[in-house]
Each structure stands twice: as structure tokens, then as C-alpha cells.
Amino acid sequence: MSINEFKNIKILFVDDEKNIRLNAVSYLERLFDEVYEAENVLGAFEIIKDKKPHIIITDINMPQINGLEMIRKIRQIDNEIKIIVLSAYTKTDYLLEAIELRLEKYLVKPIHHDILFPVLKSCVSKLKSHNSNIKYFSEECYFDTFEKILYKDNDSIKLTNKELDFLSLLCENSNNLVHYDTIQAVIWSDSFMTDDSLKTVVRKLRQKLPKNCLENFSKLGYKIITI
């Protein structure tokens, strides 16, 4: 894999220690075009909401909310994002808890570039894997979760921002129910989600998708059906 393979990937580095963060960002900027940093979990969530990074590297022991708690919250809404944990902890409890959160790697500090680089390569390879990126609704209609493009009969279909965000959320949890409170938190995080606003997004999206692939569960939420 060449360095060019990293170029379309967005990465977020989270650590409350400034020197560690600056050194890491300096290294990552040599590989990735879009590198973001946060000194705490609250700042990280703002970046996740706004920039939607593909990879997150995070420390565990941080003020306010620790890294593992942040990952738990991320996994409630996103199973596709690749997460690497950096920590000074080697305790079995932390390791077992981290494994359950579907991490790409648990690395013990201090981290050297020759150790981190192959982990990043593995993350990028998985992100660019065709099978993991493509969600088929029918033989003629599919959504590329990496490029964020809906295709039908080999033509790209225009989506509004809300439609795109909603479809992305559903596809990240394909064939599983996404509850209304999750939709509110992810899609309408900066405003109140009304019944009419959600129904408008759903109605327009259904016009662009195959029949019966977007299911509603009364008083619960929505599910996207993939084949």
C-alpha cells in the first residue's frame, strides 16, 4: 500500500497531553490530508459530529469522560469507524473491556511510529475494502458508505445533507433497528427533531430507494434492509 492510499481518509487524535498530541498530529499529517485533534472527549464528539472521521486514535485516561466511555457511545451509533486505543494501562480489566468495543488495536504507550504505521495501514485497507463499504438494497441500488454516494442503475442519486446523514446512520447499523433517540442525537444534534421533519426526510429518501427496504417500527425507530 502506497502513502497515497491514506489521502482520502480523515483521522482524529484524542489525548489530553499537549506534547503527545502535537507530536502525533505532526506525524499523521505526513500520511493523511485531514487530521483533527481534541484534548478531551467533549471536543472529540464535536469533531466526530462535524467532520465524521474514518479513524480515531484515543487515549483512555482523560478528564471528564474517559476514552473507553467515548468509544461505547460511538459504538451505539457507528460500527464502521476504526478505533485505535493508546494507553499506559496494561491491566487485564482494561484489555478485556477494550476487546468488547471492537477496537482495531490496543497499544501501550509510548508508541513508536514503526508500530503505529502498520496498524494504520490495516485500518485504511479495511476502510477501502469494497465488500465492507458497499450496502446493497437491491441488485441495481446500493450505497457506498465510504464515498457517501447512493447509486441506482449505475447513476449517482442526489441526496440532501439530512437524507445523506440519515442513510449513513441506517447503513452503519444495517438490518438493525435505529431508535428515535439515536436519530435525534446524530441527525438533529443541533436542533429539535419534529415528526414532520423526520417524515419529510423519510418520504424523500423512500422515493430514491427500492420499495420496502426502509422500515418503520412504530414508536421505536427505523431499519434499513440490505441484501
From TrEMBL:
Domain of life the protein comes from: Bacteria
InterPro entries: CheY-like_superfamily, OmpR/PhoB-type_DNA-bd, Sig_transdc_resp-reg_C-effctor, Sig_transdc_resp-reg_receiver, WalR-like, WH-like_DNA-bd_sf
RNA-binding in keyword set: no
Keywords of the record: DNA-binding, Phosphoprotein, Transcription, Transcription regulation, Two-component regulatory system
Positions of the DNA-binding region: 132-226
Residues of the OmpR/PhoB-type domain: 132-226
Name of protein: Response regulator MprA
Species: Aliarcobacter thereius
Gene behind the chain: mprA_3
